Amino acid sequence: MASPINRTISVAPMLDWTDKHCRYFLRQISQHTLLYTEMVTTGAIIFGKGDYLAYNDAEHPVALQLGGSDPTDMARCAVKAQEYGYDEVNINVGCPSDRVQNGRFGACLMAEPETVAQCIKAMQAEVDIPVTVKSRIGIDDMDEYRDLTNFIDVVADAGCEIFTVHARKAWLKGLSPKQNRDVPPLMYDRVYQLKQEFADLHISINGGVKTLDDTANHLQHLDGVMIGREVYSNPYILAEVDQRFYQGTTSTATRPAKTRVEIVQAMLPYIEQQIELGARPWHVARHMLGLFQGQPGGRIWRRYLSQNGTKRDAGIELLTDALDTLLEAQAQATKFQSEMLP
């Protein structure tokens, strides 16, 4: 199914990280990067008491990542995603945690391409938004290139045209989820080869992308790049994405990026709104710790938020005081440097 979404650059779904507050914050930095929710299970959506699909309209384009393996439940949740206005629903076939395996979804489904294919068919029969898949290059001893192509073949035959491939295999036994993000070696060439063999499919790569130069190199071989942990630790990496990768696709891509200070100021009304709804400032501010990464005063910003963010009486001044402290430190550093000049 063709999609109008420009998915050249995306931010990976990251459990406990890419919640609605994080996504709203990242949208202040890039207008066009495709954002993904944390993985939400079918059980949570169907039986949970909370509203697991809530998001802010400003987050678009935004995709729901769904965890599950029952075609009927997956279709039911896809319908809900479309009703909520999500731009895409993505099937998680990459998470290696024990909890996910016990629920029979995530990376273990790479051993069950027919199950994933059945989910694709059931979901696409009910919704018009794209139904996509995020996978690994293999699992355990099913890690040969032919295993990967067999999985892609079966799922693509069911109608899926859009894949994001984490360029590491996953060990379902013996490695923790954290280790599975680092220990298995990255095999970018295997994903490049996949694109050559399945030229008609839209294939993005994920894993180990740390710079926009890395991103540009991957785009010489592939259709898209999904960036994960680097965005979370250094979110301002997205500031150049619109002009660098979306130039010419939309008039808004020519706008200069907001400065870090402008981003903080843009977040203040949102935080005030969330406080009125019962959230604490730290629920939002924790995603902003890395905003001044690598900048003068960056450690001061991070330390101020960390030390004061969880206090019970913290209010909107958490951000304004942190910013004032940062700017004062930068001013003092500039003054010191000028005084040291001959």
TrEMBL record:
Interacts with tRNA (site feature) positions: N92, K178, R181, R299, R302
Superkingdom classification of source: Bacteria
Enzyme class: oxidoreductase
Known catalytic reactions: 5,6-dihydrouridine(20a) in tRNA + NAD(+) = uridine(20a) in tRNA + NADH + H(+); 5,6-dihydrouridine(20) in tRNA + NAD(+) = uridine(20) in tRNA + NADH + H(+); 5,6-dihydrouridine(20) in tRNA + NADP(+) = uridine(20) in tRNA + NADPH + H(+); 5,6-dihydrouridine(20a) in tRNA + NADP(+) = uridine(20a) in tRNA + NADPH + H(+)
Domain DUS-like FMN-binding: 11-324
Enzyme Commission code(s) on record: 1.3.1.91
Binding site for FMN: P13, M14, L15, Q65, K134, H166, N206, G207, G208, G228, R229
Cofactor(s) named in the record: FMN
GO molecular function: tRNA-dihydrouridine20 synthase activity
InterPro entries: Aldolase_TIM (IPR013785), DUS-like_FMN-bd (IPR035587), DUS_fam (IPR001269), DusA (IPR004653), tRNA_hU_synthase_CS (IPR018517)
Keyword annotations of the record: Flavoprotein, FMN, NADP, Oxidoreductase, RNA-binding, tRNA processing, tRNA-binding
Biological role: Catalyzes the synthesis of 5,6-dihydrouridine (D), a modified base found in the D-loop of most tRNAs, via the reduction of the C5-C6 double bond in target uridines. Specifically modifies U20 and U20a in tRNAs.
Family stated for the protein in its record: Belongs to the Dus family. DusA subfamily.
Protein name: tRNA-dihydrouridine(20/20a) synthase
Organism: Paraglaciecola algarum
Biological classification of the source: Bacteria, Pseudomonadati, Pseudomonadota, Gammaproteobacteria, Alteromonadales
